[in-house]
Design goal:
Elements (H helix, E strand, L loop, with lengths): L3 E3 L7 E3 H22 L7 E5 L1 H6 L8 H5 L5 E3 L5 E3 L6 E5 L2 E2 L16 E8 L12 E7 L7 E9 L3 E12 L2 E12 L17 E15 L2 E15 L35 E16 L3 E17 L2 H8 L1 E21 L4 E22 L13 E23 L4 E13 L3 E13 L5 E12 L32 E15 L2 E20 L6 E22 L2 E17 L8 H9 L2 E2 L6 E11 L7 E10 L3 E6 L2 E8 L3 E12 L9 E9 L7 E3 L10 E2 L4 E9 L1
Parallel strand pairs: 6-9
Antiparallel strand pairs: 1-2, 3-8, 4-5, 6-7, 8-9, 10-11, 10-36, 11-12, 12-13, 13-14, 14-15, 15-16, 16-17, 17-18, 18-19, 19-20, 20-21, 21-22, 22-23, 23-24, 24-25, 25-26, 26-27, 26-28, 28-29, 29-32, 30-31, 32-33, 33-36, 34-35
Family: Belongs to the TonB-dependent receptor family.
Keywords: Cell outer membrane, Membrane, Receptor, Signal, TonB box, Transmembrane, Transmembrane beta strand, Transport
Main location: membrane
C-alpha cells in the first residue's frame, strides 16, 4: 500500500506518490523541451508563432492543411498546388520537427506533415542565425505533440461537399520513462488539386490520401532523452481537366479511340491523367541538457517519390508527347547542435549538418517523328530516358550571443556550406544581428546575412535533349546550362512595440540581392517542378503586423508589400521560348510568384468560456493583389508582364465543445462547422500563362464542412 501525506492546504484528500511522480514527469519533459528550443533561437530574425490555441481557432483546425495556417503569417503568399511563397521566394522553405531539419522531397501537391501532429508551430524569416542553412526564405519549425502535454485519445470524423471525407484518430500517453503520440488520417475528396475553371466542381479531380505520424520518447534520466519521430504519407490524385483546349497534333490514328472526339481527337475534358506521391521519414534524436552545456544529435532518413501516369492518347493530341515519368530521392543525414553557456554575457552555439542523397529520374515517352520539312508522321516512336545521381550537402556553424548591455544583444556568427551534386559550390557566410530593447515593450533589430542556397536536388532537369530531336517533343532550343547555387546578400530591419499588455504592433523591412537566383516552374504535362536560375535577382518588401489577445478574444492582422524581380535566365534555357530568353537577357522581369500586396486577418471569440460548454466563433481573411501572367501586346508578349485579378476570401469556423458530459460517459465531444470561401468568390490563382506556369488554376469555391470529435 502506498504511503500517504496530508495536503498542507488543509484539505482532507490524500496526496499519493503517484501524484508527485506525475508532476515530476511533466516538469522534466517541459524543461528538456525548453532546453531543446534554446539550441536554435531566433535572435535578430522575425518569428511568427502559432500556439495550439491559435491552430484550433483556424477554420478547419487540425483537419485543415498546414498551408492554410501559414497563410495567416505576414509575407506568405498563396499559390496553386497548395504551395506557399515566403517573402518573394519560390519554395526555399525549410521544415523542421522539434528543431531537426527534414531533407526535401519531390512532392508537389500533398503535404506529408499533418496539422494535428503540431502542438505548436513557428515561422522564422529575415536574417536567420547561423544554425539555419540551405533553405532560408523561411524556417517552419513544428513542435510535435507528445504523450505528456497531449495525453489522451481522440476519434474524429470530418467531411462535407465534393465527397469530402476525413476520418482521423490520435492518442498520446506516458508510461514510466516512456511517452508517445501517434495520429493517423485518411482523406477522400474531389478537390485534390485546384480547379482549372471557375466552376463549382472540377472535372476529374478525385484524390485519396493517408497519413500516419508518430513520436516516441524515452527519458533515461533528467538530463538525457532519446526520441524517435516517423511518418508515412501516400497520396493519389487525378489531374483536373481543362475543357475546350485546341489540339495540335491530331492524325488519323485517333479515329480508333472510343472516347468522345472533337475533330477526330479526344475532347480535353475527358483526359485521364494521374499522379501519385509517397513520403516516408524517420528521425532518431539524442538530447543532453546540463548546467552549462546542452546538445542534440539526430540521424535522419527520408524517401519520397512521384509517379505521373499520362493519358497516352490525349497527351499526344494536345502536347505532342505522352510521357510516363517517375522521380524519387532518398536522403540520409545527421544534424548536431550544441549550446555552451559560458557566462551571463556569452552563449556560444555551434553545430554541423550533413546529408547524402540519391536522386533517380525515369521516363518513357511516346512522340511523333518529324521530317526535315516539318511533316508529322502518324506513327509514334518511344523514347526512354533515365538518370541517377548521388550527392551531398554539408554545413557547419559557430556563433556567439553576446549581451553587450542589459538592453543590447549582438548575435554574430559564421556558417560554412557546401554542395556536391549536379553543382559543386561552397561558401563562408557571415551572419550578424543587433537587438536593442530601449524601453519596456519596445524592440529594434537590424541584421545582415550571407546565404548559399543549393538548387533542390530533386528538381534539376536531367532530360537528354538529343533523344527528342526531330520529334514532336523537340525543345525550342538546345541550350541547357547547369543549374547553379544561389548566393545572396540579405538585409533586414524591424521594430516591435507592445502598446498595452494585450496589444502588439510590428514593422519589418527586408532587401535581398541575389546572384543566380533560383526559381522553379512546371514545363510539360507532368506536374514536376524544374529548377532554373536568373543571373541576377532582387527581392524587397515591407511587412506590418498587429495582434490583440485578451481573455476570450483574439484578433490579428498582417499587411505585406513585396517586389521580386529577375534578369537573364542562365540555366535550363531549353524550357523557354527563344524570344522570352532574349527579352529577359536585357530586361528585369517579375518572378511568376511575385505578388505586390498580400494581407491576412482573423479573430476568434469564445462564448461561455468559463463553462463546460464553450462556443468558439472564428474567422480568417486572405487578400492577394494577384500573381503574375504574361502581358499580351500586338507584336508579342512580355513575360510575367502583368498580374491576374485581385481577390479576397473569408473563412468561418464555429465549434461547440461539451466537456465531461455525463451522458457521454464523462468524455468530451466537439462539434464543428466550417465554411471556406464564405461568400463564394470566384478567383484565379493562375491563368496558364507566365514563366514556368502550366494550366490555369482557380481558388476553391464555397465549401461547407462539418465534423465531430470525441476525446477519450
Amino acid at each position: 500500500m502506498a504511503a500517504e501525506n496530508r495536503d498542507q492546504s488543509g484539505g482532507d484528500e490524500p496526496v499519493r506518490h503517484e501524484d508527485h511522480r506525475e508532476e515530476y514527469i511533466h516538469v522534466t519533459a517541459r524543461r528538456l523541451d525548453q532546453a531543446r528550443a534554446a539550441l536554435q533561437p531566433a535572435i535578430g530574425a522575425t518569428q511568427t508563432n502559432f500556439s495550439r490555441k491559435a491552430i484550433e481557432a483556424n477554420p478547419g483546425a487540425d483537419n485543415a492543411p498546414l498551408n492554410s495556417i501559414l497563410l495567416q503569417a505576414p509575407g506568405v503568399t498563396q499559390d496553386s498546388y497548395g504551395q506557399i511563397h515566403i517573402r518573394g521566394d519560390h519554395n526555399n522553405v525549410q521544415f523542421r520537427l522539434d528543431g531537426v531539419a527534414l531533407p526535401e522531397g519531390v512532392n508537389v501537391f500533398g503535404q506529408a506533415l499533418m496539422t494535428r501532429f503540431a502542438h505548436s508551430m513557428s515561422l522564422t524569416t529575415g536574417v536567420l542565425p547561423a544554425e539555419y542553412g540551405f533553405r532560408q526564405a523561411g524556417v517552419i519549425d513544428i513542435q510535435t505533440r507528445n504523450g505528456v502535454a497531449d495525453e489522451g485519445g481522440t476519434l474524429a470524423g470530418y467531411g462535407g461537399v465534393r465527397d469530402y471525407v476525413q476520418p482521423s484518430i490520435q492518442y498520446g500517453g506516458h508510461w514510466g520513462q516512456w511517452d508517445g503520440f501517434i495520429t493517423a488520417d485518411a482523406v477522400h475528396d474531389r478537390v485534390g488539386i485546384e480547379n482549372t475553371t471557375s466552376s463549382y466542381n472540377a472535372i476529374h479531380d478525385l484524390s485519396n490520401q493517408y497519413h500516419v505520424l508518430g513520436h516516441l520518447r524515452y527519458t533515461l534520466r533528467p538530463e538525457t532523452r532519446f526520441s524517435l519521430t516517423a511518418g508515412v504519407s501516400n497520396a493519389w490524385y487525378q489531374l483536373p481537366n481543362n475543357p475546350g483546349q485546341q489540339h495540335q497534333f491530331a492524325t488519323p490514328l485517333f479515329r480508333a479511340d472510343d472516347r468522345p472526339v472533337q475533330e477526330d481527337a479526344p475532347d480535353s475534358s475527358h483526359l485521364d491523367e494521374h499522379q501519385q506521391q509517397i513520403t516516408d521519414f524517420a528521425i532518431l534524436s539524442w538530447q543532453e541538457d546540463h548546467e552549462k552545456i546542452s546538445a542534440q544529435t539526430s540521424a535522419i532518413l527520408r524517401y519520397s517519390s512521384m509517379r505521373y501516369s499520362p493519358d497516352w492518347l490525349g497527351d499526344l493530341v494536345y502536347n505532342g508527347i505522352a510521357q510516363q515519368a517517375a522521380r524519387s530521392v532518398f536522403s540520409s543525414g545527421v544534424q548536431s547542435d550544441v549550446t555552451w553557456r559560458i557566462s551571463r554575457s556569452h552563449t556560444v552555439r555551434g553545430g554541423v549538418q550533413a546529408y547524402g542523397e540519391r536522386a533517380v529520374s525515369k521516363s518513357s515517352s511516346l512522340v511523333y517523328p518529324v521530317d526535315e520539312e516539318g511533316a508529322i508522321s502518324p506513327r509514334t516512336v518511344t523514347v526512354h530516358d533515365s538518370s541517377g545521381k548521388t550527392g551531398a550537402l554539408y554545413g557547419a556553424y559557430l556563433q556567439d550571443e553576446w549581451h553587450l548591455t542589459r538592453s543590447l544583444v549582438l548575435n554574430g556568427g559564421v556558417r560554412f556550406d557546401g554542395v556536391e551534386e549536379y553543382v559543386h559550390a561552397h561558401q563562408f557566410s557571415p551572419r550578424v544581428s543587433l537587438v536593442w530593447t530601449p524601453w519596456h515593450g519596445g524592440r529594434f533589430h537590424v541584421g545582415y546575412a550571407r546565404y548559399l542556397t543549393p538548387p533542390p536536388f530533386e528538381t534539376i532537369g536531367t532530360t537528354s535533349l538529343d533523344r527528342f530531336a526531330d520529334t514532336s517533343a523537340a525543345p525550342a532550343n538546345y541550350q541547357n546550362d547547369r543549374v547553379k547555387a544561389e548566393r545572396d546578400n540579405y538585409y533586414d530591419v524591424g521594430f516591435m512595440q507592445q502598446i498595452t499588455p494585450h496589444w502588439h504592433v510590428g514593422l519589418d523591412a527586408y532587401w535581398k540581392q541575389a546572384k543566380n537566383l533560383i526559381d522553379e516552374g512546371q514545363f510539360g504535362a507532368p506536374v514536376i517542378l524544374t529548377a532554373y536560375n536568373y543571373h541576377r535577382g532582387r527581392v524587397r518588401g515591407v511587412e506590418l503586423t498587429t495582434d490583440y489577445s485578451a481573455g476570450p478574444l483574439t484578433l490579428y492582422g498582417n499587411l505585406a508589400v513585396s517586389r521580386a524581380m529577375g534578369k537573364d535566365i542562365n540555366s535550363a534555357q531549353w524550357n523557354f521560348d527563344v524570344e522570352d530568353l532574349q527579352y529577359m537577357r536585357s530586361h528585369w522581369v517579375h518572378l511568376d510568384h511575385d505578388q505586390l500586396i498580400t494581407a491576412s486577418a482573423g479573430g476568434a471569440y469564445a462564448f461561455f468560456h468559463r463553462t463546460v460548454h464553450p462556443l468558439q466563433l472564428s474567422g480568417t481573411m486572405i487578400y492577394g493583389s494577384g500573381l503574375r501572367k504574361d502581358r499580351e501586346l500586338e507584336d508579342g508578349s512580355i513575360p510575367n508582364g502583368t498580374h491576374v485579378p485581385q481577390y479576397v476570401t473569408f473563412n468561418l469556423g464555429l465549434v461547440q465543445t461539451l466537456k465531461h458530459m455525463a451522458w457521454l460517459g464523462g468524455y468530451t465531444m466537439q462539434l464543428r462547422l466550417d465554411v471556406i470561401n464564405l461568400f463564394d468568390r470566384r478567383y484565379m490563382l493562375r491563368d496558364g500563362s507566365g514563366i514556368g506556369v502550366g494550366a490555369p488554376q482557380y481558388g476553391l469555391r464555397r465549401s461547407v464542412m462539418g465534423g465531430v470529435a470525441l476525446s477519450l
